[in-house]
């Protein structure tokens, strides 16, 4: 999906030559959902709260995948190609697209 892009480091709007930068926002949208909490968006159920998993045990992996799938597929309308948490929650690889 194309949308206005945010700077990956600062979170500010990306601006080039005085205009907003438009580009593929799939990864940006996933990041925003992962880091936000429910009720931070106009849709009150969207928001994964990734910080809950930063020190979680590997036994939480099924819950992680289930809750993330609900967020991305059911609420956001994305198709998940891959969720790899074999290197831990902090190093999760999430491949999804609209």
What does this molecule look like?
This protein is α+β, with helices and mostly antiparallel strands and 98 residues long. It has one domain. It is built from two helices and six strands, in the order E-E-E-E-H-H-E-E. It has a two-stranded antiparallel ribbon with strand order 1-4. It starts with a strand and ends with a strand.
Distance between the termini: 6 Å
- Report the principal-axis shape: globular
Largest sheet: 2 strands, antiparallel
SSE pattern: EEEEHHEE
Q: What's the Cα radius of gyration?
A: 14 Å
How confident is the prediction overall: mean pLDDT? 93
Produce the secondary structure layout.
Elements: E1 2-4, E2 15-16, E3 19-20, E4 22-24, H1 26-35, H2 61-75, E5 79-84, E6 93-97
Antiparallel strand pairs: 1-4, 2-3, 5-6
Concise description?
With 98 residues, this protein is of the alpha+beta class. It has helices spanning 26-35, 61-75; strands at 2-4, 15-16, 19-20, 22-24, 79-84, 93-97.
Comma- or semicolon-separated keywords:
98 residues, alpha+beta, two-stranded antiparallel ribbon, 2 helices, 6 strands
């Amino acid at each position: 999906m194309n949308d206005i892009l945010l700077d990956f480091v600062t979170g500010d709007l990306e601006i080039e030559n005085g205009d907003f930068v438009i580009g593929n926002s799939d990864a940006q949208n996933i990041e925003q959902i992962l880091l936000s909490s429910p009720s931070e968006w106009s849709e009150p159920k969207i928001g994964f709260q990734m910080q809950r998993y930063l020190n979680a045990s590997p036994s939480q992996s099924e819950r992680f995948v289930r809750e993330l799938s609900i967020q991305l597929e059911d609420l956001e309308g994305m198709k998940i190609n891959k969720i790899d948490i074999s290197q831990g929650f902090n190093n999760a690889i999430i491949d999804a697209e609209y």
